[in-house]
Backbone:
């Protein structure tokens, strides 16, 4: 169990309202205009100066209380392009879009922390509340950094948090070093020679070439990657052909690569190129690989990871803070912020039972029971990293 966070009842009620309103009105990458308005209006009602426009729909609110260090706290705004199948009253009103990853809850928890901190100011220094668009696939974190996030809002460290439905409520999870995978994508265009389906000998069969490529790519992990290293190579799309009796000229394969180490990332890309060249030569086809590097890995820095652990442990028993979880093969564009500033990314448990839908599931819904604890984590982190003077602490 954990201690009941000191988050006021009216703040709890507002977090619930914000969360469900945002959930019912999901917006996807770089289109979070309504969501950004909700966030900006809430921050302005707290009396915070608000900046808008980084990465188009990004919002940054700043709370300053005297001189001292500065930190940035980040939440994500965007939803996913998928149909919600849940039937709760606050289910998505937008066909084909839903908050299936909990960004609605992340936003509400950070707003709740901003409200608590702006009321009580139990710190000295500056807190930047960063609400980032386009985390899902589109790299909004990279865009905010490239457009000058930390130049406009200097921060000594940056922190992020994500809900984990697979982790029981009342627990946290984190690790030093690499916590999430490097995310790359690829497209392979196979060009053969189209022919009649009954006379394959007159052409170069791009479908057969593609089938061999799919199988050969799996040997990168099974036969070229060390057993103690981690890599995933997944072909997720195959496009080619229009009718039953024509062998198509071209087939397109697309997919994703996940690694936990830059060296393995380089090795995997080189192996894919070698396989594509070899299969092309074997069949006399053309095979063009377009390998695109995407999100880097989230790499938690040691001191900031310790700070996150201490903040979490101030709210729950230390035994409920898992400090050496295995790295995940999922990815997160918070990594771009960690490339520029030290920081840490922590998971907050959201599970109530073994049958809870996980993120990116059409029945998933953020667990509102963790809203106060999530907000309290942010508050505890700020109090720890931006301590008020002893005299002021005694007066509170």
Residues:
């Amino acid at each position: 169990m954990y201690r009941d966070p000191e988050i006021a009842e009216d703040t709890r009620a507002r977090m619930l309202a914000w969360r469900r309103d945002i959930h019912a009105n999901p917006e996807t990458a770089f289109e979070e205009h309504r969501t950004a308005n909700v966030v900006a209006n809430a921050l302005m009602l707290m009396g915070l100066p608000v900046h808008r426009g980084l990465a188009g729909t990004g919002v940054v609110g700043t709370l300053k209380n005297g001189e001292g260090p500065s930190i940035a706290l980040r939440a994500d705004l965007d939803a996913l392009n998928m149909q919600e199948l849940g039937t709760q009253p606050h289910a998505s009103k937008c066909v084909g879009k839903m908050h299936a990853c909990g960004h609605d809850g992340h936003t509400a928890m950070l707003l709740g922390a901003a409200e608590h901190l702006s009321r009580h100011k139990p710190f000295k220094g500056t807190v930047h509340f960063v609400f980032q668009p386009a985390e899902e696939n589109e790299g909004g974190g990279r865009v905010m950094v490239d457009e000058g996030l930390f130049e406009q809002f200097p921060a000594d460290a940056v922190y992020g948090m994500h809900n984990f439905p697979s982790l029981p409520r009342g627990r946290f999870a984190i690790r030093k070093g690499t916590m999430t995978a490097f995310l790359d994508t690829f497209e392979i265009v196979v060009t053969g020679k189209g022919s009649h389906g009954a006379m394959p000998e007159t052409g170069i069969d791009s479908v057969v070439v593609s089938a061999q490529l799919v199988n050969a790519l799996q040997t990168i992990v099974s036969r070229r990657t060390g057993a103690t290293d981690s890599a995933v190579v997944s072909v997720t799309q195959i496009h080619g052909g229009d009718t039953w009796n024509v062998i198509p000229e071209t087939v397109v394969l697309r997919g994703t690569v996940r690694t936990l180490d830059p060296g393995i990332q380089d090795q995997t890309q080189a192996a894919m190129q070698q396989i594509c060249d070899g299969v092309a030569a074997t069949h006399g086809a053309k095979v063009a690989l377009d390998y695109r590097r995407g999100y880097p890995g989230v790499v938690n820095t040691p001191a900031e990871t310790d700070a996150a652990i201490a903040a979490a442990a101030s709210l729950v028993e230390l035994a409920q803070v898992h400090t050496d979880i295995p790295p995940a093969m999922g990815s997160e564009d918070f990594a771009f912020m960690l490339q520029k500033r030290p920081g840490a990314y922590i998971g907050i448990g959201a599970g109530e039972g073994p049958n809870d839908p996980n993120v990116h599931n059409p029945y998933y819904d953020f667990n509102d029971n963790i809203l106060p604890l999530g907000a309290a984590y942010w508050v505890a982190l700020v109090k720890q990293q931006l301590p008020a003077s002893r005299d002021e602490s005694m007066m509170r």
Observations:
- The chain has two domains: 9-178+297-386, 182-294.
